[in-house]
Amino acid sequence: MGTGTNGELKYEISQNAYIKLVLHSLRHKTAAVNGVLVGRISPKDEGVVEISDSVPLFHSNLPLLPPLEISLIMIEEHYVAQGLSVVGYFHANERFDDVEVCGVAKNIGDHISLYFPQAPILLLNNKKLEALSKGKDRSPVMQLCVRDASKNWRVVGADGGSKLLLKEPSANVVLSDYISSEKWKDVIDFDDHLDDVTKDWLNPGLFN
């Protein structure tokens, strides 16, 4: 099952992986930010990619390849012992209402696809994020994009909701709590780490 095109795969993201990426984008609201998804093909169902963690990458100079290469190597080295690897890419555009997959996102998504062909791009949807405080929406505040047979990135479904699943149904409730307590101030990304190596990009204390 699920060995066909990327469009048939489902992507299940854990609460911590999901929240960390959204908080990172909130910390740098006026900038484009990105991150990577860490996980594996589910041992129980090869039609599911399990995204168990995420790493916030950059909030400046996103297109630069050398820092990206350094970060990907360090991330792979850290997670390999857990049987995990980089399985996708997250991107938040600079402009609030921009939900297009930009050239930078496509290039980095293509790069990650060389190592993990089923890699998706998750694109932040700011309107859904903003609406969180008003509603009880349990669907992700991200759009799922995958590469089709001709290697073009496309959004899956109108909302992609059926293919991108939150592992914990209450993830948006927890996210809302973290936003109101300004938890986003504590997120450290690779940019921060490259400026000051004492800052830990694994964010070990974020969810304590």
UniProtKB/TrEMBL annotation:
Residues 11-146 form the MPN domain. InterPro entries: EMC8/9, MPN. PROSITE patterns: MPN. One of its GO terms (cellular component) is EMC complex. Belongs to the EMC8/EMC9 family. This is (rape) hypothetical protein. It comes from Brassica napus.
